[in-house]
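Shapes recur. Our protein:

. . .
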Amino acid sequence: VQLVESGGGLVQPGGSLRLSCAASGFTTSWYIMIWYRQAPRKEREFVALIKHLGSSTNYADSVKGRFTISRDNAKNTVYLQMNGLKSEDTAVYYCNAKAVWGTDDYWGQGTQVTVSS
């Protein structure tokens, strides 16, 4: 079982990035997929989630209107499109999969996003 995030990097304020979270060893269709982030010296915080099977989503107020979470169950991958990036979006972004039924809870290793001019 593995979650692998990619797509992070250095971007200027106002720029965009798309993060990917590729899963292997399980089927993401039956999992709620969540993005979290952790900035230096801060607690890990919720960013966005997308529910299983459908497209119901939820966002932190700080990213609402700028970030979009989506999933491609055929590719077993979840995405986070980030537009209008701000310096305060700088963090390590983590992908999390929570089983709808049962206690399975998987985490990726994180990908660094740095927003700076």
